[in-house]
Amino acid sequence: MGEASQATQTQTQTQNSQTEWSQTAAPIIPTIWGRLYCTNNSFQGKRCWKPNNPEYYDLIQPEFSLGRALKCTLVMKKDVVTEDIVKNISKQHFIIKRDMTEALSPAVITDLSYNGTFLNGHKIGKGNSRVLDDKDEISLTLPTVKIFIFKDLLRNEQDQVPDEVSQQYYISRTLGQGACGLVKLVYHKTKCTKHAMKIIKKSRMTNGIINNLNAPGNIQNEINIMTALRHPCIISTEEVIDSPQAVYIIIELMQGGELFDRITSRGRLSEQLTRFLFRQMVLAVKYLHSQGITHRDLKPENVLLESADDETLVKITDFGLSKFVGEDSFMKTMCGTPLYLAPEVLRANGRGYGPEVDVWSLGVIFFVCLSGYLPFSADYTEMSLRDQIVTGRYRYSPPHWCDISLQAKQLMKKMLTVHAERRITLDGILNHPWMQDINVIIGVQKLLIQTNQARNISQQTLSSTGTDDDNDSNSSNVTVTKLSRAKRGLSSNTSCSLEPEPKKLKGANYPSYGKLDDSCSTNSLNSC
Prior knowledge:
Radius of gyration: 31 Å
Number of domains: 3
């Protein structure tokens, strides 16, 4: 028994030893995000680098520093570079940093020297930073003393954009993609600031032939309009770069995400929060209309938030987008999912409608904010999506509306009025009783004043209250389409064709809908 026990113990030790060996033998592969290749450049007839110097230095850690100080990653001594160069190098000459916690973030070089760090022959300046790009040349003390060529080993898409874009911006990860374009995170190479870049293709293939959607003159006109817009609640267009294949729109980056995501994460928004955010949306659209611009694509995905706070600044984006992609193309991309389009847009197939379409879209956003579901959807099979909108029959679910105030329901109906001439105006919305909360008005005004663009805000944001009354429709318990389901179908749902007009379902009454143009008693609004 003793020998057997000893044998068993020996076997166990051998297995443990093998396990330990297998655990410690696995090599740790470093993540090399960049390389600094030493150049063959000479200074005053002498090679800058000493013969025993390595061909390159791998960049593994988030920071790489160079200088004469011993704490630097690469200590510049006489046995590394020539004496003439060493004597002009600062204790800390420059530092290169890369945020490894953010995907595809660029490397940034900061000049810490008095004698100068140069990037591609241009002096950075003490305390200033620049974004590093692949094959950038780094010089010390003089533009001619080129010691490094930077190699970016992380994937980027600099070669996928024209030179006029890549020379100014470092292209990072994709932020989003829609029917009208791709949105990328970009970094300004000189300012080291983050921006969003929308890429809109200008041509499409028809029978193998490329058809341009816009004349250069028309595009330039729209560029001038977009860059001239100045309002705290309108996304700032920093720059528009026009190329033969696409338009690249550089806009400010909003850290708070989309209104869509804010609603879906909470289910729905309170009346107070909706009032705070919605007031800003109305002011933004009013400004656009004053500039002769109809948005035509208002939806929660195009309403961006500055921060994660409740009382945050709202900014409208993608205004006038159809001008860039062409009227016909815009309507074709929208026709599959007109969840937020006004009835007159669907009836006219993109022609013969006015700025009132934006009020309807605001009404749908308002509905979604308060209830958390869509008023119109192809999932409501009693009627086609097109017929729901053009007849104004929205899906009303009493459990979702029973704790919503009567004034909010009245305002919703006034915005979702089928006939444009009877629809409430933007001033009417601002003056509606539901909007007259002094704390919200002052809070919004303070927020706008705190921005650099608040000079154009009208004093009418503190306008007096109105006394409009209206009614809603009778309704019953129904199933509703959640917002998350609808967004998943935005790019693929084509159930609502604009032409030919879908056949109407049989039956004159749709008890699960409220008909917006039909008057009904106040009690029906407040029955829940």
